[in-house]
Fold this protein.
Amino acid sequence: MDHVRWCTGVFTLALVVGLTGCSSAPVATATPTVNGLQARPLHLARLTTGPCQPTPGQAADQFSPFGTGFTPGDGPVYPILGEQTVGAGETRKVLWIASPRYQGPILVRGRQLDGDGTVRFGDSAAADAALELGSSSAADGSGNASGGASGSAGGGDGWRSWPKYTFVTAPGCYAYQVDGAGFTETIVFRATAGPLGGPGCQPPSPTYIGSAGPEVEGTSSPADLWALLFDTPPLSANQGVKIVWRMTGAGQLHLDTTGPGGIRAVTGGPEVHLGSTWTRPGDEWGSGFLFPTPGCWDIHAVRDGAAGDVWLAVH
């Protein structure tokens, strides 16, 4: 897992950004200044059609002297996120660790790939937009941080660590860009407004009030599914509401709506939209609903090879 990919030419960006024309090589120990790393552009491609594809990872203790938290990426610098998703609008403690094979400075930046949300390295949206890791602490054998000079090796055989914070402003798909001497790595992760919805609205699908209005994140695979409500939640029974959809994938969108006792909602659409200012990935459709009774409603969305659900608690 601890390797870096070197390039001899220009690299391209995909949904999960990777390097092309590269080969594995030991990490160089040349140490440019952080100012030199700041001159590198931010190469994080906008996500407009395909689904968010978070970077794979494993528990940190599988390859380092640190704990069991989920740790994505190929290194030599890793964020221990703890869980595979980050809460939007919440402060997440992130322990950054660096392999003994790399002892140079590190610059971390990031942004949202499917919207205008920001990544901040602190406890609020006003925190710093970049994280500079130029000094370090060495890890002891238990994974706890102990004081140490930059590049020093402690009981953790030279591993370095920095306890920091990440704050993202909205749910969606995000990425860190990690720059160091001779390498750039992109680490993609997802932020949610809460636990994804489940049957019986246990829980209901999470809702976030974005710039376009109330957005509901669906539970779907392998696609991304979002609903934009043209009313203030919670929705009310026997009142019509317009819902706009964004779903990645191919083919026509089909909606099937089931409520308490298997009853059906009155629906109109979906009708294709040619575009809008709403920035979620995927094609867009408009629809209308009238839910005849209060309770938990499942709107099941299907495209070719992909399906998802939005669970709404109607009052």
User: Anything to note?
Assistant: Confidence is low (pLDDT under 50) at residues 2-30, 136-155.
